[in-house]
Write a structure and sequence with these properties.
By secondary structure, this protein is α+β, with helices and mostly antiparallel strands. It has a single domain, classed as 2-Layer Sandwich (Alpha-Beta Plaits), CATH 3.30.70.141. It is 40% helix and 19% strand. It contains seven helices and four strands; from the N terminus they run βααβααβααβα. It is globular. The mean pLDDT is 97.
């Protein structure tokens, strides 16, 4: 059973899309084993996205991710990382496949409704950033 990390980003929370996104997650067969509504501080966003620090979009990404509440989640299931990434769709909503979350709910590359881990190592780091073991279901 693999675990992955997901964020429902500020644009999706502000547009009241969290329920629709969670419904799609559950309909896909992935289990939600951790869930929290939170507001990232600037320090939190800078730390979480430190891997992008040298990229030109780092500052605007941190601004955006602190602009409103987010929902962080841990998803579990066979092949959870790939399944969640497939369900989200391409980073750019304009290039995402029909029926994916980003195609249906994303506004642009930055405000694309969701985030998901891209590898087991990343998932482990991202889960640990937001959740302690006792906060997750087995």
């Amino acid at each position: 059973m693999e675990r992955t990390f997901a964020i429902i980003k500020p644009d999706a929370v502000a547009r009241h899309l969290a329920g629709d996104i969670l419904k799609r997650i559950e309909a896909s067969g992935l289990r939600v084993v951790g869930l929290r509504l939170t507001q990232l501080s600037r320090a939190d966003a800078e730390s979480f996205y430190a891997v992008h620090k040298e990229r030109p979009f780092y500052g605007s990404l941190c601004d955006y991710m602190t602009s409103g509440p987010v929902i962080v989640a841990v998803l579990a299931g066979e092949g959870a990382i790939k399944r969640w990434r497939d369900l989200m769709g391409a980073t750019d909503p304009a290039k995402a496949a029909a029926g994916t979350i980003r195609k249906d709910f994303g506004q642009n590359v930055e405000q694309n409704a969701t985030h998901g881990s891209d590898a087991p190592e990343t998932a482990a780091q991202e889960i640990a950033f937001f959740f302690r073991g006792l906060e997750l279901l087995p």
